[in-house]
Amino acid sequence: MMRAFDRQKVARDLRRPHASPSLAEGVQRSLEHKHAAQRQVDWQALRRRAHAIKAYAIANLGELLVRFENEFAARGGTVLWARTGQEAVEHVVAICRKHAVTSVVKGKSMLSEELDLCAHLQAAGIEAVETDLGEFIVQLAGQRPSHIVAPALHLSRADVGELFHDELGVPFTDDPKGLSAIARERLRTRYLAAGLGVTGANFGIAETGTIVVVENEGNGGMSAGTPPVHVALMGIEKLIPRLEDLPVFLQLLARAGTGQKLTTYTHHFLGPEPGKAAYCIIVDAGRTALLADPKTRESLYCIRCGACLNVCPIYRRVGGWAYGGVYGGPIGAAITPPMVGIGAAGELPFASTLCGACREECPVDIDLPQQLVYLRRRAFERPRSGRIIESRAMRAFAKSMMTLGAYRRALSIARALAPIAERLPWKPAWLGAWMGRRSAPRIAPQTFKEWWRQRA
Amino acid sequence: MNARDAILAAIADALRSPAPTRGGASDESASPAAEGAESGPAGAAELASRFRDELALVDGETHFVESAERLPRAVADVVRRLGLSAVIAQSSARASHAASLIDGARIVDSATTMRDVDSADCSILEGRALLADTGSAIVVASTWAERLLPYFPRMCIVVADISDLHSGMTRDALSPFFGPARDRERGEAVIITGPSRTADIEKIIVLGAHGPQNLVVFITGAPGG
Amino acid sequence: MAPTALFVPCFVDAFWPGVGKAVVKLFERLGVRIDYPMQQTCCGQPSFNAGDWASARALGKRFSAVFAGYERIVTPSASCAATCRVFYGYMDSGDHYALVGSRVRDLASFLVQDLGVVDVGARFPRRVTYLDGCHGRRELGCTSAAIALLRAVRELEYVELPKIEECCGFGGAFSVKYPALSASMGDAKCAAALATGADVITSGDPSCLLHIGGMLRHDASPMRAMHLAEILACA
């Protein structure tokens, strides 16, 4: 169900910094806003508390999910469970059939991206419209979202103008106000026609079986509230134990993601009004794999704010698609390998300098570099054919460091080879790339050890 | 095995191995108590002006009205000045009172149709609590029509009293947001912070992406209104 | 004070011994006795970064044997210090090399926090900017110590690097595996450095400096890369 992870394509895309200028600039604006907003609260105390709440929630996940299910049902809703993305889609289609739904409106949900929900609904003969402006644009363009929070950040206003002109038949404009107005008008008819609205869930409250969704545009509230049926898709990791835990996350989420103090709308969906129906589909889709390894469990604390993407120097240069899955940036590199398999996605944790900026920005204080380091170890211990040479080279390196004699021998060999390497007409790609951009360092005529010995 | 049992079994299995704890990890046996935002002692006047400034930062407007008696006139004046003609209000006493001097204003009731909601150009909502630190208003809707009032029309008016104004996300402030959940009420409680906005095109802010382009909060009983 | 050991990382020993010599000269001037256990080779950082924990652990154990008995081990490489102080802890499953690792100090932290010295009696009449290596900055928190040391150098004009918190793009094997990304990040760092008008870019991280210094030389830039120890050794 998750579209196949294309290892070769990822390997190519990570080596070409080609993200559009609007991405880099857009990301930078977020960073400036954000730090200003964070100074208004006790940011570090909130992060620590959020981490502790998530640690507790994940450590008690089974009981909390059962509690959530009971409470959601007590408020007139129906809970369904899905092991895989495929099962989740099947549930949505079944609900549509049950309620004779032919048209669906959808709010922003990264989980629904994992499910490729709109494509599968269309295939089942059900119209599915993305209502978030960025997702609407990206859907129109037949592309994938490139950023967790701002899906169309890779497109310039002119790109969007051309897209609307071509796909919607409207006169070209590149004025963001005009473009938004066009979308608003198109979408209004869709809300009214839809028989069912799908949203994600930023937080599920176990205590009350209620769902919290945050957004700026209002399309989440309209998708959930206009049609007679609301379906909320929720990953198992989205639970927090009590209502009282929510304000901690509300103070962190917008500030970390976009630099706002709060998003425009913080919805608390309570349960279906008379004449309406509400469903919550609780989805696993690889999350229990992250849970099963104690060392990757922490990445389940993620609240999908996008802060790590915004600050990552690699993400800024390669964009969201290069990571091969739905999630890009440091969190994408941390959760994709356990979810799709280390054999397929084992390169992702290496496309990083482990600079630690992501950990610094994460509002839930997830140690993302430590996650990547651990996944590197898992990848090294299962070398693919392409990595055998590298693992041999690393073992040879370590061997040359294990005794003074081996070290000295390695240095003599390197000294002898260096002048030859520089004159080689052909170099392996990695050596050529290094030397193409830098004056290569040479082994010193006298090493420190040699100097120290002759000094004594 | 059905999906529910399979997932719960996978979780139980996974959690048999405890996660490595960080240095100084908190006691995992009890969910750590969360506090709301710090609220220092502040007079109503100071809170009121903070609310106004914060709401202005997110492109919303605040009007202070001396007393509840004067509210309908103040609201009607704004509605007329902006040329709005299809007003729809929540059925609560405060909201319908605020709409009482507006010609043709609809109060949500069992006869309200989707067309009424969609064709409205202005909604009037009761603010059950106001949060000064963020310029936010908490609205509670228990019927399908009231749920749509914050989002559909281009102009959204929220009416509240100074006594509902809190410094930030304290327990008291959030009681209308949490209470209906505890009481198993249906519908939606929403914290509204300014008019609808998007920055999805080149991170340029546009108001009124789907719903309101304008948000106006009226506060009655405000000092120096 | 108990003798301090000097750890000169493998790549400094081979490619930039001048850094080690500068540290020795500096400590002589400060009257601090340091030992250099000849058996030392590598802390294991490249192995750790590659995910080769078996090798990294073996090198960690060897490191702790070589430096057993020293209460403090000072090194002019902040990333190696971070490996010993922090990353050994990720891997150590009761072999206790993490304990020895925790005694390793980067040069700046050692001078300022352990010796309590900020003015080391240096003179360096140049405009200097500082490259804050990520491991030093985020794992060790040694930034303020390094900058304090620079500001105390006589006639040195310190100018802060814009976007000092952004990674220079070296990342060890990253620079070889992802050369375009590494060069792009290095270019951004070089541009920021040149914007300061500094004569010299310095750091407590020789690996970052080899990367940036190599790019500056390749571009025939007048700006030189010098290690923090080399500046502090100037009198």
Give a short synopsis of this structure.
The complex is a heterotrimer of chains A (456), B (225) and C (235). Chain B has 7 helices and 12 strands.
Walkthrough of the structure:
- The complex is a heterotrimer of chains A (456), B (225) and C (235).
- Chain A is of the alpha/beta class and 456 residues long.
- Helices cover 53% and strands 11% of the residues of chain A.
- Chain A has a six-stranded parallel β-sheet with strand order 1-10-7-4-2-3, sandwiched between helices. Chain A has a four-stranded mixed β-sheet with strand order 8-5-6-9.
- In chain A, a hairpin with a 4-residue loop joins strand 5 (203-205) and strand 6 (210-215).
- The longest helix of chain A is centred in the last third of the chain and has 20 residues, at 404-423.
- Chain A is globular, with a radius of gyration of 25 Å.
- Chain A starts with 6 loop residues before the first helix and ends with a helix.
- Chain B has 225 residues and is of the alpha/beta class.
- Chain B has a single domain, classed as Rossmann fold, CATH 3.40.50.10420.
- The mean pLDDT of chain C is 96.
- With 235 residues, chain C is an alpha/beta fold.
- A four-stranded parallel β-sheet of chain C has the order 2-1-3-4.
- In chain C, helix 7 packs across helix 9 (143-151) and helix 11 crosses helix 12 (206-218).
- Chains A and B meet through helix 2, helix 3, helix 4, strand 1 and helix 8 of A and helix 1, helix 6, helix 7, strand 9 and strand 10 of B.
- Strand 9 (265-271) of chain A pairs antiparallel with strand 9 of chain B.
